[in-house]
Here is the input.
Amino acid sequence: MMQHNHKSGLARSARSAVLLLAGSYLLLVIYTYFNQGAMLYLPDFPGSGHNATPADAGLEYRNVTLTTEDRLQLDAWYLPTPNERGVILFCHGNAGNISHRIGTLEILNNLGFSILVFDYRGYGRSEGKPDERGTYNDAEAAWQYLQQRGYRNDQIVIMGRSLGAAIAAELATHHSPGALVLESTFTTLPKMAAELYPYLPVRWLSRFHYETIDRLPSINTPLLILHSREDEIIPFSHGEQLFEIANPPKQFLELKGGHNDAIHASGIDYYQNGLNDFFIRYFDR
Here is the structure.
């Protein structure tokens, strides 16, 4: 009798443990579904303040306010350069704001390009709250600003890094820029998230898609893809798959280092020369 009671107690304990684990997992799934916006967009990392301006790197710039289709005001910088080669519309990566991209702006400016860089809604000093459609609208507002300045389509390079590259690809499907540059980005956000969180049904949960790989077949502009085999956040295979499906003309530049230090790990000269070779071959006319 005592043995039977002991076995019954163990069975109840096991059922309780299973129910506790199942309940905890369900709560995690629910939390992930309703909070994925806060998990995806990181405007306040590594800090929400503006800690630099292009002037700190000796670059001329002008503060610009962009107005989106839904009437939000976005903070942006326009960096002119004399005898410009063209203009780069730069869609920055997820974390932080435009003040954290001074090094990249310096590299692009040294290549002879004017630059327009902007903060997505909810980032930096821009109004609003980020969401997928909203970030696409933000990039469209940047494009329209350059059009209003008198730039022709073939004078504009759309360039994006990480999450910004998905936004850049979407923008390029609606226009015909002179070139498109996608750096360290993913095929689709749900696919990347499923690789990062294999214990969650991410593909079913995802409310954000950013389907870069579905955009490329409709883009015929010259394309450069940059990615590192050592990228610890977005696997190198994503860059390979994007390159494979993309239309020619296209070029691939393999970087070194992690997701956030690839430029310096690869070497600034290597990175800058790789961009320059692509622009000489496909953009300069």
Notes: The chain has two domains: 1-40, 42-283. The radius of gyration is 22 Å. The first strand starts at residue 62 and ends at 67.
